[in-house]
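In response to the reviewer comment on reproducibility (Comment 2.3), we provide here a single inverse folding case reported in full, input and output, so that an independent group could reproduce the run without further information from us. The structure tokens appear first.
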């Protein structure tokens, strides 16, 4: 979300990885369990101060707004069926 803040789904990490995240980021926000599986808000991508994310992840959107990040909601329903969302759809240019 920001250099200081991340949105994660804690059960997705083993204890060592979770501990590392908690050490590296001063602000760690937990995604709602229902949203994490159905809307994949942790798969959002942030450009400047706007998070592009699957439509309907209301709890995650509130977290983002509290951190000064606005949300641009998009429909990725067909991609969610295969286990991906916004982050998986972007192209890295190097």
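Designed residues, in position order:
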């Amino acid at each position: 979300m920001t250099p200081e803040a991340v949105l994660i789904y804690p059960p997705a990490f083993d204890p060592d990885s979770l501990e590392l995240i908690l050490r590296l980021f001063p602000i760690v926000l937990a995604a709602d369990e229902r949203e994490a599986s159905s809307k994949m808000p942790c798969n959002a991508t942030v450009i400047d101060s706007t998070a592009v994310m699957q439509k309907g992840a209301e709890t995650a959107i509130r977290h983002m707004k509290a951190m000064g990040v606005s949300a641009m909601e998009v429909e990725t329903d067909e991609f969610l069926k295969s286990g991906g969302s916004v982050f998986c759809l972007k192209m890295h240019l190097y």
